[in-house]
Design goal:
Elements: H1 2-15, E1 41-43, E2 47-50, H2 53-64, H3 69-83, E3 93-100, E4 105-111, H4 133-137, H5 148-159, H6 164-177, E5 179-180, H7 183-191, H8 193-197, H9 200-206, E6 219-220, H10 223-235, H11 238-241, H12 243-256, H13 262-266, E7 271-273, E8 276-280, E9 283-287, H14 294-305, H15 310-313, H16 318-338, H17 349-352, H18 355-364, E10 389-395, E11 401-407, E12 465-469, E13 472-477, H19 485-497, H20 503-508, E14 512-513, E15 521-523, H21 529-538, E16 542-543, E17 552-557, E18 560-565, E19 573-576
Parallel strand pairs: 15-16
Antiparallel strand pairs: 1-18, 2-10, 2-19, 3-4, 3-11, 4-7, 5-6, 8-9, 9-12, 10-11, 12-13, 13-17, 14-15, 17-18
Helix pairs in contact: 1-2, 1-6, 2-3, 3-5, 3-6, 6-10, 14-16, 14-18, 14-19, 16-21
The structure holds 6-diazenyl-5-OXO-L-norleucine (DON).
Amino acid sequence: MQLFRIILSSFLMAVMPFAGPAAAQTQTPPIIESDARFQPVIAENGMVASQEEVASRIGVEILKAGGNAVDAAVATGFALAVTLPRAGNIGGGGFMLVYLAAEDRTIAVDYREMAPMAAHRDMFLDAAGNVDPRQARFSPASAGVPGTVAGFVHVLEKYGTMSLHDVLQPAIKLAERGVNVSYGHAQSVLAAEQRLKQWPESAKIYFKPDGAPYRAGELWRQPDLAKSLKAIAERGRDGFYKGKVADAILATMQKYGGPMTSEDLAGYKVVERPAVSGAFHGQRVVTMPPPSSGGIHVVQMLNILEGYDLKSLGHNSAAYLNLLAEAMKYAYADRSRYLGDPDFFDVPMKKLLDKAYASRIRSKITPGRARPSTEIAPGMAQLAEGPNTTHFSVMDRFGNVVSNTYTLNLSFGSGITVEGAGFLLNNEMDDFSSKPGAPNAFGLIGGEANAIEAGKRPLSSMTPVILFKDGKPLMATGSPGGSTIITVVLQMVLNIAAFDMNIAEATAAPRIHHQWLPDALFLEPGIGADTERLLIEMGYPVQRGRILGSTQSVMHLESYFYGASDTRRPGAATVGY
Ligand code: DON
């Protein structure tokens, strides 16, 4: 461990307070014969892809110091809580897939937020019975009981090799000594200025005393957050859910009128669930079960699409995008009715994942035609009884893989910083269906399955994935993007599994999105005008102007790691060694 401390402290000296560009690869990269326009990062020993460069480098230092993918993932996750506070967090929750090479087993870890015990179905309805979006999204009541710290402690204790103290040191030092504000962070704070300034503690942390924002390159310290991280390093899970940090959460709740209690905090539970698994032309896709909806629907859409010769249609041709969009509509319609927290609602998983069900949906799809969403309903094919989030992927030289997506829900969550504790509270309660048919922040609707109940977890679209080929992990990927996460991840899997792209091409390729309701087909700028015209002729209400997702992916092929960080959002980096 001594060696680890020396390596880490020299690394921290190097990155702080001036986080420079990634260190040059010292090894000779293998020659890849490819005419692709996009080239991945290549390395031999291990790799981390995340939305923020300093955090990726911290993960790689942990790998270099002998840590495994879980150690590196937890260190990266805590570092993102400091360097990417719009989504990286300790006040939110998420999902982590851990593939253990030695056991050839993938564990799905659910550390999603839980509704406080005082939560109830109508809590976000106003006097007229309408959803009050301010209460649901930007109030202390919009926060679910945070799961991130419990989740990270759980996976580290069970599957990591290093101490919590050691993996937390880089994050603590970043918070204490400060980071140089990245362009991406400066931009995200400006975008959320109004919301953050409503809460004095958030204004104090994210802005200078005179109210001016920190500019890119300026030194920004978070001493309160450093104290909270130290409490976790010293006392583990109890350092967050009990004691001073917990007291600070409760004081903030009391001051602004939120329902979370000490019992809610102490009672937070991490759940390991059987991973969802599907097969696409013999390649295994392993992903997150409910309360993620993403895993089930990615597999469902792959099942539908397996019945077509996609490659012959041509990548991103109108004919191909037509099939994608139709599959998306059926999946999101089902999502609205059948998906919710499996501890509260009997999700018909087997049926939704059934290839025969997918084939019945396929029979309803007429190639060349857009079926209006009004003609599609949940379970239509006789089912016998989808801002800010962030993903990171890690692979180590032992063959272990971590695919992790976590979030505060919207960018900077509820906007509310826990007073004196330096971190933001999520607004995940808006992921519940507050009223049947009333759209949430992502335009998603739902009903009974995802109604608010005490202790329940809100349905999520977060979709960490591990794709296997010949029994070995080929790719770990995932994305932010609210309801669009599911379709973004689907297209990443298809780009690799059906179109044999390299990971960088697969990442850069233009994307589309349809979520059944609203009946709109979103096309990224890279989808050409001729294709758009053909899609309009098929009947699609086409919309432009949205950029979809930000994938962070690592691939292992033969004896090399290949990685790619999406260029759709600034600051991301894939680092290998
Ligand atoms: O769990 C979910 O589905 C949402 N809370 C994710 C939010 C999100 O991705 C925002 N990011 N861009």
